[in-house]
Design a protein that fits this description.
The chain is α+β, with helices and mostly antiparallel strands. A seven-stranded antiparallel β-sheet has the order 2-1-5-6-7-4-3. A hairpin with a 2-residue loop joins strand 3 and strand 4. The protein has a single domain, classed as Electron Transport, Fmn-binding Protein, Chain A (Pnp Oxidase, Chain A, Roll), CATH 2.30.110. The longest helix has 18 residues.
Length: about 160
């Protein structure tokens, strides 16, 4: 819980300032700011985190295989969010995938290939079979949040 508090209260505000500044190039390109309205509190919240791309959507794993925060629950029902990505704001739809291996595994595999593989015990020596086993086990345990830009949503 301490890490989540430090991230939310200390690091997120600093990272938000950097991401909105000319110095954003000092940070990785796949860091975003997600702004949403809490489903119960109706307060605006902003979080900074790493995303991976999977087809036409962005993927994030809340807590990155560690302590699970609560913010992802806001997206159990698809919700409108704002995402600041590579210096641009975009309107998006966010939703949580949980208890659905068919949807979760390919997205989680892409996320893990991009980063955080070590959190699942995946190394350069991990076989494809073991990789798939570890990703499938993680998909059963961790929720995944997908973020789709509205411009990629059919009919928008």
């Amino acid at each position: 819980m301490l890490m989540y508090w430090l991230s939310n209260k200390l690091f997120n505000p600093i990272l938000r300032v950097i991401l909105h500044s000319p110095f954003r190039s000092l940070l990785p390109d796949n860091w975003v700011i997600l702004t949403y309205t809490g489903r119960k509190t109706h307060k605006k919240r902003s979080l900074v985190f790493h995303v991976s791309q999977y087809k036409d959507e962005f993927i994030v794993v809340p807590g990155c295989f560690g302590e699970l925060p609560n913010w992802w629950r806001n997206f159990r029902k698809e919700s409108k969010v704002d995402m600041f990505y590579q210096g641009k704001s975009m309107k998006c739809l966010a939703r949580t995938i949980e208890h659905n291996e068919t949807e979760a595994v390919p997205r989680l595999a892409e996320y893990v290939r991009d980063s955080h593989a070590d959190q699942l015990g995946i190394t350069d020596e991990t076989t494809e079979e073991k990789f798939n086993e570890l990703v499938t086990a993680a998909a059963k345990t961790y929720p995944i949040v997908t973020i789709r830009p509205l411009s990629s949503v059919s009919g928008s």
